[in-house]
Design goal:
Blueprint (H helix, E strand, L loop, with lengths): L1 H25 L8 E6 L2 E8 L2 E4 L17 H35 L5 H24 L3 H15 L3 H9 L1 H12 L16 H11 L4
Antiparallel strand pairs: 1-2, 2-3
């Protein structure tokens, strides 16, 4: 507990100094000798000399602190541990897919006509199948279901809507029907405040490096 308190005090002091440093950098009257650069590999930050100390100026990300979970049984605890494991495996895929969707959409906006866009989509479809089919085959059924929801989390769109938008309603219906054979649905939405509350907690903790 003492160590945790020390860490929080250090973060608080760092935040205050960083806020002062940012104010000084924004002020054109700041002497040039007070401005410098600090290298905290692999990152480089602007910094100032404050009371003889070099203080890095950096943005601090939001940190979410959850209350400890209380499990009613060992089974619930095992299920939560399994959820953490599955999130760690599937969340990176969901983020990759979200990035690909964004890049594809932005690139298609630069193409001259529907024919060129369709040709690009066909190439992307072949490329994604080649890369992701072996990876998806290694997922369990529950991990596949989780991935569908996490894609929604990262894109704010259901997998059905994504396929429909890029590849047409026919393929969206086909792949949703295929998914239903394995108990999945591409139309399933992510609800972080309802049934997916524990999943959202797991995602946030994994993103913060707690697991």
């Amino acid at each position: 507990m003492k160590k945790i308190v020390q860490i929080y005090l250090f973060l608080a002091v760092t935040f205050v100094y960083n806020a002062k440093a940012q104010d000084l950098i924004a002020d054109n009257t700041t002497p040039a000798k007070q401005r410098t650069t600090i290298y905290l590999l692999p990152n480089v930050y602007p910094a100032i000399i404050l009371d003889g100390d070099t203080v890095a100026c950096m943005s601090l990300h939001d940190f979410i602190k959850y209350s400890p979970l209380r499990f009613a049984s060992n089974r619930q605890q095992v299920q939560y541990s399994k959820l953490i494991r599955d999130v760690k495996k599937t969340l990176p895929y969901a983020k990759e897919i979200a990035g690909i969707i964004t890049e594809t959409y932005e690139y298609m906006e630069t193409l001259p006509d529907d024919k060129a866009r369709q040709q690009h989509l066909n190439r992307m479809e072949r490329h994604l199948k080649e890369i992701y089919t072996p990876k998806m085959k290694k997922l369990t059924r529950s991990q596949g279901q989780l991935l569908i929801k996490l894609v929604d989390r990262e894109t704010n769109s259901s997998s059905y809507h994504i396929v429909d938008a890029f590849m047409g309603t026919g393929k969206a219906i086909f792949w949703n029907t295929f998914a239903s054979l394995f108990g999945n649905s591409l139309k399933k939405r992510y609800n972080p405040y309802g049934e997916d509350r524990l999943t959202e907690r797991a995602c946030v903790l994994v993103e913060q490096g707690a697991f």
